[in-house]
Amino acid sequence: MHENHNFPPVLTKTFDDISNALSSASQREWTVSKSGNYSIDLTGKDGIIDFFKSKEKFFAKNFPSIHTEDSYFLLSCAGADLKKAALDPARYSLLVSIGKDGTVRCKNLSDRVNMAPTSELLCHLLVHGVLKEKKPEHRAVLHLHPPGTAAFSALYCLDKTFKKKTEALLDGMSKVHSEKKGSSFLGFFEAGSEKLAIETAEVFSENLFVSWAGHGAICSGKDLTHAFERIEFINWIFDVILKVI
Asked: What is the CATH T-level fold of the domain 9-118, as seen in this structure?
């Protein structure tokens, strides 16, 4: 399945996790139209730094300082087809480093050329910054487009009557989800924008889950499969409420 069999064991294990999570998402038709993206924090994992240095640099960008240490992540590439990525994650993933000075560099993991990281790169890096402080055992971040979440979040943000009717139901059902502390809903922002990234990180610091209005969900987990399971559970809550309202 993987083009390069010289990956460090941690990468091979991570690819298996990606395949599992994205296969589950594809079965639910949550990966239509090349939608969604993912990232996994590999900082401190054996073999990552040496493997990164052995690969040729092909992308670089500077952000304001985000992390207090040099950090390494595996991210989906821009325009990744997550159905295909489920079958061959290495072909649709990039190894990304961000220095404590904000310098970002990316390395290709396959023979594909002219690849760039997901347009939500800044959002993922900011969210991982929150996780390092708030929930360090959560090392994966997943963004998908579950229809129930997209529909519910759009109605919640646009329709004051709907919002009022659903708040009590949300409060009661979400108590099962003990990490929820405040509203997880974020209004309409341009995908890939700096504003969306900053606002998402702010909301994420309380919920470890954000509903993007009319768009989808972004959620963290101990690995990508765990993040998918958390999105699946929260989307189930939204689906149930939509049926009874």
From this structure: L-fuculose-1-phosphate Aldolase (3.40.225)
